[in-house]
Specification:
The protein is of the alpha/beta class. The protein has a single domain, classed as Rossmann fold. The protein contains five helices and six strands; from the N terminus they run αβαβαβαβαββ.
Length: 160
């Protein structure tokens, strides 16, 4: 399964190296990765994974534990987890931003990526998309629009 995903990821990246559209996503468990790959294929877009400098473990993702890494991050609006690196987004006009819904909104690592790319994101068209086991995307899109009002957020899409 991992080899198939890697092969598909490589194929998408190879066929889209000159694309004006980027799909940037964070995926803690692989669900959002699959949604991002689908969008990249459909849009003939480049694909970029937003990676945490320190990978999230199963214990980190335990939302029932108030002391888990994800709980601590989401309970602090100013938290900005470190990310591995950023891609150069200047060549792209349209960017899809993908993430799992955590506590009704995007994980703080998305804020880290947005903050790191803020000057370059202005003037680009941004499409949020998310995966969730039961939430809608509405609250998270409103959060992004409120937190980053200078950016051109479009309607969000919840991926199944």
């Amino acid at each position: 399964m991992k080899r198939k995903i890697l092969a598909l990821l490589c194929a998408v990246m190879t066929m889209t190296m000159n694309a004006k559209t980027l799909v940037a996503y964070f995926s803690a468990t692989g669900t959002t990765r699959m949604a991002a790959m689908k969008i990249a294929r459909e849009q003939k877009a480049a694909l970029w994974e937003i990676e945490a400098a320190e990978r999230y473990t199963a214990a980190d993702l335990d939302w029932r534990n108030p002391k888990s890494r994800s709980s601590l991050e989401m309970n602090d609006p100013d938290e900005r987890p470190m990310i591995k690196q950023c891609t150069d987004i200047t060549p792209y006009d349209t960017i899809y931003v993908g993430y799992p819904i955590w506590w009704g909104i995007c994980p703080r690592i998305i804020n880290s990526w947005l903050d790191n790319n803020l000057p370059q994101l202005e003037g680009k068209v941004l499409f949020p998309f998310a995966t969730s086991g039961g939430s809608t995307i509405d609250e998270s899109v409103e959060y992004l629009r409120t937190t980053y009002p200078s950016l051109q957020w479009q309607e969000g899409k919840l991926m199944k």
